[in-house]
Amino acid sequence: MEHFLENILVNRREMTAREWAEDIALGLGVFVLGCLYLIWGGGSLIPLDDAFREFTGVQRYVFGSVPFFYLAVMSLALMMRRITPWFVFVVVMAAYLAGRAAMGGQELLVLAPCLAIFTVAEERSRYEVITAGVLATLCVIFMTTPGTSLAFDVYTRLMVFTYFALALFMGLSVQSYRRYRKEVGQRLEEAAAIREKEAEKAVEAERVRIARELHDITAHSLSAIGIQAAAAERIVDRDPQMAKEAIQTIRHTAKDSLTEIRAMIGVLRGEGEAAENRPTHGTEHMGELVQYLESAGISVHCDQSHYRRDAVPLYIDVAVFGIAREAVTNIVKHAHARHVDITLHATEDLVTLMVVDDGRGMGGSYAHNATAYDDPLLHMGGGGHGLQGMAERTNLLGGGFGAYDVKGGGFAVVVRLPFREKEPVEGAETTVAQPVLPEIEVPKVEVQVPAETHPRHAAADAEEQKMPVPEVTDLGDGEER
Description:
The chain is about 55% helix and about 10% strand. The chain is of the alpha+beta class. The chain is elongated. The relative contact order is 0.06.
């Protein structure tokens, strides 16, 4: 019962500053208009013609302070009309009826009760609107009217009832329009969501189709190439001519397959778009990252003395550069750093990238490896899409990823990617010097790179098998990276 009364008396909505200003101005406007009506316009309702006054029984009324008191009550109540529509309705109607009775049935200001009825019709439910309409009708029936003439009495009540009915239907119209706009907005949002889902489904279906076609092209061609290459290898000594024919078949098959793939890419490329013929960027472009940082006013120390591109698979080299580029971009956008250390080195089967800045950090530590890719730490406060993208790329290659604040200020990104050593090229030096990593003063916890993705780790140095991932040090107010 208490909750029901509270729901009736209080309109559960938040008022903006503009709405408050509008209602206060409305209340003041009603009071001023009412005062003008009582002082200068009230006499117009009292006919000056003696014959008409005598016919209708209307008596002259000299206005005192009482009508202004009731007018002030109605005006103050209207300032709260959107907060408590029913309370305002009751107060305004009571003041209106009392004012008419005190003035001998003369009109006080019908605008005030009309606004109260309009507010209930605009803000409340249909059942409450019907209730307000019934109560307003009862007020019209029992209100005091001037004079003793039945015709004039009916005319006065009919006029007031018409005003009340117009206010009621105007409020209902406004409420219906708001509901219509809300429903249209919801439908537009639902339609947009449906279109987005359909677009995602279409994109996914297109990806599947493209993957299937690429598989059909490459699987057939590579199978044929593999068969011909095996045959050529076996007969090259005893039948060089047949081996030469097998090699020619390999060349023609590879050429045809490449033509089909180019045709498919040409279909996917939009009209007028130039073909992308630049090689994929790898660590040979690390100098561009250094220039990018220096152009942003950040000093850089880049150490690649223990890294050889010819000893690292191309896909690892490209991934390392992509992660380094994302880390550098984050530093320029968010870190407010003055100096950056980039360390890149490789052992026989492991590449490690370290990007350390002296900026403000971001207040947290994040770590993941291929066995715990969905680690919730990666999504805790501050972990932005840049970190997630680097972690995803690391995960695809079965490596370990760490990102954390450094004691004393700064932020570090550490990536370790395992790989199978390239087959040695005849005459090339295959040994790689063991580097010494710069020490970062942070607590360390171990995140092991999975053995199944890194079969040679068992023979590697214990320190080279572990990725430093710190505990949370200083939870500052860092921006998203």
